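Saturday, quiet lab. Running sequence design on the structure tokens for the scaffold JK sent over.
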């Protein structure tokens, strides 16, 4: 098999693996390998690649979270992959035009899946405006109904930082969108404080009979740092401006032609990944434990790359 074909096979496997892990949380490495027709070593290398994948604009908060707990694998942050696909009329026409071009190439007639998709697009475009419906968003619908009725709700929420689901009773205050994500600002009775919940991480909503309590506290949207969160101070070059735009920060100040920022998170791994993502744009980092964690992770990634480079040509999957 050529290098190009091996790359294509791996890309398909990584995409399939993401969907598989979302459907089978906690699956073992061996079971994933059997389902993907690969060996466990290949799956582990795919996971090293998968945690660098995500959604636009690809800041650390938009990347997938991969956890390997012993032999079990957990993937979070990839919930949009489970959402039904939808497109505008303009997108459908462009896709149809591209499909016709491919079908007109030599060998194109041998792709029945693409031909079938093109037929469906042609039928959908027709003379009427194209409408490809998404399934109703039951979570958002339930939240909107609770807000309109002024009722308290019980939610099942997935915490990406702790990789666990919790059941909370909250008094909803408002919905808002920030950086392309929708959040519910609510008074969390479990925590006794205001919290922002990403709606794509709310697994279930139960409308309660009791009235929602009126909350006079700040109802800002987004992550609010807690007193016991871990904190990192980073000095960044100007090419890392995306951190200022896309990552929730406690403090931002000019530092020469760059920035000095303070990041708070309950998740140590998040801070390590953020520093790795910044890369050469990072000028300094505090505290010392974070420098040590990043150095250890970078060394592990270097060894993985070095091992892959020593494989016979064409056998590397990294």
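Result came back. Writing it out in full:
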């Amino acid at each position: 098999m050529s290098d190009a074909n091996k790359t294509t096979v791996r890309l398909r496997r990584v995409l399939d693996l993401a969907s598989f892990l979302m459907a089978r949380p906690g699956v073992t490495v061996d079971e994933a390998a059997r389902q993907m027709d690969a060996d466990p070593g290949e799956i582990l290398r795919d996971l090293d690649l998968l945690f660098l994948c995500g959604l636009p604009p690809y800041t650390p908060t938009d990347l997938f979270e991969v956890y390997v707990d012993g032999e079990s694998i957990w993937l979070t942050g990839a919930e949009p992959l489970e959402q039904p696909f939808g497109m505008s009329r303009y997108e459908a026409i462009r896709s149809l035009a591209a499909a016709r071009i491919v079908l007109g190439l030599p060998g194109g007639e041998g792709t029945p899946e693409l031909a079938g998709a093109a037929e469906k697009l042609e039928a959908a475009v027709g003379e009427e405006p194209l409408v490809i419906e998404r399934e109703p968003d039951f979570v958002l619908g339930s939240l909107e109904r609770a807000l309109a009725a002024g009722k308290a709700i019980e939610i099942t929420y997935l915490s990406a930082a702790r990789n666990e689901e919790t059941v909370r009773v909250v008094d909803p205050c408002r919905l808002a969108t920030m950086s392309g994500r929708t959040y519910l600002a609510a008074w969390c009775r479990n925590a006794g404080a205001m919290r922002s919940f990403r709606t794509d991480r709310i697994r279930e909503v139960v409308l309660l009979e009791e009235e929602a309590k009126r909350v006079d506290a700040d109802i800002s949207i987004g992550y609010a740092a807690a007193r016991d969160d871990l904190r990192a101070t980073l000095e960044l070059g100007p090419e890392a401006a995306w951190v200022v735009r896309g990552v929730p920060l406690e403090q931002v100040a000019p530092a020469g032609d760059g920035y000095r920022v303070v990041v708070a998170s309950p998740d140590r791994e998040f801070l390590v990944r953020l520093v790795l993502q910044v890369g050469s744009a990072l000028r300094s980092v505090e505290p010392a434990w974070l420098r040590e964690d990043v150095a250890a992770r970078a060394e592990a990634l270097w060894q993985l790359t070095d091992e892959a480079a020593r494989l016979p040509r064409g056998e590397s999957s990294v």
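Notes for JK: The mean pLDDT is 77. The CA atoms of residues 82 and 273 lie 25 Å apart. Ask whether to fix the surface positions before the next round.
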